[in-house]
Amino acid sequence: MSQAQGQLAHDQALLDDAKLNLKRYQVLFDQDSIPKQQLDTQNALVHQYDGTVRVDGAQVENAKLQLVYAHVTAPISGQIGLRLEDAGNMITPSDTTGLAVITKLQPITVIFSIPEDNLPQVLGKYQAGQKLIAEAYNREETKRIATGYLLAVDSQIDQTTGTVKLKAVFDNNDYALFPNQFVNIHLLVDAQKGAVIIPVAAIQQGPQGSFVFVVQSDQTVAVREVTTGATQEDNIAIEEGLAAGEVVVVEGADKLKEGSKVTLASSYKHKSSSSGAAPGGDNP
Questions:
Q1: Domains annotated on the chain, with CATH
Q2: Rounded to an integer, what distance in angstroms lies between the CA atom of residue 148 and that of residue 146?
């Protein structure tokens, strides 16, 4: 770069001197003191130096361009990983590893899957323009990490798993989410008020469909067919067949039949020769 600029300055000085001499020769020629050939020679010299200066200018611009190529500017902002090349390594355009990996953190997206049976309910709200809230929980589902919303739905169902991929986006202002981090996503599609909820463990399956064992006042159980609704974590909503406050069996149901005698376990914990039971409650 400095060499090209120095050559340009040198040739520019020669051009300036040649132009001054051309003006002097023009005055002398007008006074008929020098021949026309000498004036023409000086004029040609000016044009020669002018061309040289133009070439030098192009060399300076090329040197500047090479300096631009020597600096790598990231196209996005985000978290940069450990360098993949060390100082002194030869880098060529055919290298596929790159120098480092930059991952965008704000906002950040999470890809998750849902069963295809749940897709119509989600699509109905999504295509209607409703903003579906998505919550990210830790691996144990004991702590909510971030709150965002559903961004996109995949265009096809994975036939091997019977699921469809969805993408949720989170602002991630506190950097709680990190690239490739495992999270559990809760997608709020609908809210039911006053719904009866019971533990999922209480649901049994039979030839007629879903049923539960309801503990009656005489400590015997009765088989009650139920219509189930939405599931959240370990709880499931009962749309029909059960009233709030009724007690259902959650442990030892495989040993029961219509009219079996049971004993309520303390704090609804299973005890020997007894069946654990829990009351149905209202969803807050």
A1: 2-69 (1.10.287.470), 108-188 (2.40.30.170), 196-282 (2.40.420.20)
A2: 7
